[in-house]
Amino acid sequence: MTAAGRPVALVRDVPASFVSCVTAQPSVPPLDAGLARLQHAAYAAALQSGGFAVFRAPATPRHPDSPFIEDTAVVVGDRALITNPGHPSRRGEVPDVAEALARWVRVEVMEEGTLDGGDVLQVGGRVFVGASMRSDAAGIAALARFCGSVEVVAVPVRATLHLKSGVSALDPDTVLWHPAACDRADLIGVRVIEVPGDDPEAANVVRLPDGSILTAQHHRLTADLAASLGFPVRTVDVSEFARADGGLTCLSLRLRSVGAVSSEP
Ligand code: CIR
Fold it and tell me: Which among 20, 31, 40, 65 is the best mutation to test ligand 1's pocket, defined by most ligand atoms within 8 Å of the CB?
């Protein structure tokens, strides 16, 4: 399929070992890799129909969390910073991602500290980075060096795994935010829309190139909220990934300023 000029989204297939993902609490019943694969395919299809050219990196059995590809790199324009993920079990995921990204962007590897891409939110002309249980001060400093003249704002993360677990962009100047993620005042220079309810992940959405918002099926209120703000909404079921502490953004690396020449089926 030809998709000249479309921004790229890179996803990573679900291995059978997905059942052994890192989770804050043991999964009962156990995670279901077959169901996760079906949901992952629907997620990739939604990215595609919303305007991304979707590319798939193969699953790696040794890395159960590898479908959460967002954590392994930060793409700014035509450059990517390959991260050193905060959880030791995830560090082996990065070489394959670096190799895949090199097709589109210049790749640099982080040399100090830890950083998860799930903590990095690019919106309002700034880069917000969560100081979280996964991203430390040295990692945040490495990101700031990588970003050069683009302002990097460190945001203490309250009760979520990552910053983007509870804050994500609706458009270039607006974020959805849940109070469990961070202090609202830290989100300088952007319009902040509070998401109701108890689950911070309800604020995790993906803005698609066609301007629509991808929401998780189990967060009905988020879809209603986005629609009430005038955004077209697409919805996918990612419940199996939510059980492994992941949201919608975690499942792809989005290269918004890189146009694909062709995409895989
Ligand atoms: C982990 O704990 O690393 C994975 N089970 C979930 C990662 C979710 N990623 C993200 O929020 N960006």
Answer: 65
The number of C-alpha atoms within 13 Å of 138 and in the hemisphere containing its C-beta is 9
Nearest atom (ligand 1) to Cα of 162: 11
Q: What is the mean pLDDT of residues 244-254?
A: 98
SS3 (DSSP) at 236: strand
Distance between CA atoms of residues 151 and 128, nearest Å: 8
Q: Which CATH architecture has domain 8-262?
A: 5-stranded Propeller (3.75)
pTM of the model: 0.96
Q: Best substitution site from 11, 245, 249, 251 to test ligand 1's pocket, by max atoms within 8 Å of Cβ?
A: 245
Known catalytic residue: 162?
A: yes
User: Tell me: the pLDDT tens digits for 162-173?
Assistant: 999 999 999 999
Confirm whether 218 is a catalytic residue. Answer: no
Pairing of strands 106-109, 79-82: parallel
Residue nearest to atom 8 of ligand 1 (CA): 246
Q: Is 69 in the pocket of ligand 1 (CB under 6 A)?
A: no
166-191 residues labelled b (16+ CB within 10 A) or e (exposed):
bbbbbbeebbbbbebbbeeebbeebe
Q: Does residue 219 carry a pLDDT above 90?
A: yes
What integer pLDDT is reported at residue 4 of this predicted model?
66
Dump pLDDT digits (tens) for 21-63.
999 988 889 999 999 999 999 999 999 999 999 999 999 999 9
